[in-house]
């Protein structure tokens, strides 16, 4: 089952994608949504690590300081990032490694290249997402700004 889960993760991250552009343009958003929705479990949830929240600012989610924020469904995922990414000219996410964490989870290592609209400064980020696969679809995505925290959450770091 775990290799099948890695393949689901690879379909969710097919290669470099400029998430800021995809969420800003209605036609691109519709295309991305049509591609990703079949990969998402009906109970899909997004969990944002507190470190990522610091980067996002206030994504409009109710959560005590220092605890993860959770949104539900593809609409929750899109709404969190659409507003925040509007400040970025680019936010290019490139998967670099897919790690079979256990029979239900896949850790995806990411290189992110972001350029702000205001300062035009490119910022490199080494992040990671931990995916939980249920019934062959992604049921949960946990966003980590620091790879070490993602490895720990996946039980791959002591």
Concise synopsis of the structure shown:
Helices cover 35% and strands 39% of the residues.
Write the layout of secondary structure elements.
Elements lengths: L1 H11 L4 E2 H6 L1 H11 L3 E9 L1 H7 L12 E4 H13 L2 E13 L4 E12 L5 E13 L2 E8 L2 H7 L5
Parallel strand pairs: 2-7
Antiparallel strand pairs: 1-4, 2-3, 4-5, 5-6, 6-7
What does this structure look like?
By secondary structure, the protein is of the alpha+beta class. The chain has six helices and seven strands; from the N terminus they run αβααβαβαββββα. Helix content is 35%, strand content 39%. A seven-stranded mixed beta sheet has the order 1-4-5-6-7-2-3, sandwiched between helices. The longest helix is centred in the middle third of the chain and has 13 residues. The protein is globular. The chain starts with a helix and ends in a 5-residue tail after the last helix.
Please list the strands of the largest sheet in the order they lie side by side.
1-4-5-6-7-2-3
Helix percent reads 25-40%
Order of helices and strands: HEHHEHEHEEEEH
Q: Uncertain spans, ≥5 residues at pLDDT below 50?
A: 57-65
Residues in β-strands, percent: 35-45%
- So how many helices? 6
* Number of β-strand runs: 7
Apparent shape: globular
Major pleated sheet: 7 strands, mixed
Structural class: alpha+beta
Radius of gyration: 15 Å
Give the distance, in angstroms, between the N- and C-terminal Cα atoms.
25 Å
Round the mean pLDDT to the nearest integer and report it.
84
């Amino acid at each position: 089952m775990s290799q099948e889960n890695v393949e689901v993760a690879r379909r969710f991250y097919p290669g470099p994608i400029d998430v800021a552009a995809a969420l800003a343009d209605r036609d691109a958003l519709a295309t991305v949504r049509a591609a990703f929705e079949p990969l998402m479990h009906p109970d899909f949830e997004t969990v944002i690590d507190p470190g990522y929240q610091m980067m996002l600012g206030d994504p409009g989610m109710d959560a005590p300081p220092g605890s993860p924020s959770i949104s539900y469904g593809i609409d929750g995922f899109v709404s969190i990032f659409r507003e925040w990414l509007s400040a970025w000219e680019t936010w290019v996410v490139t998967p670099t490694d897919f790690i079979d964490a256990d029979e239900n989870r896949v850790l995806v290592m990411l290189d992110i290249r972001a350029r702000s609209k205001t300062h035009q400064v490119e910022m490199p980020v080494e992040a990671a997402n931990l995916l939980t696969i249920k019934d062959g679809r992604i049921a949960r995505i946990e966003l980590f700004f620091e790879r070490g925290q993602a490895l720990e959450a996946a039980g791959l770091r002591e």
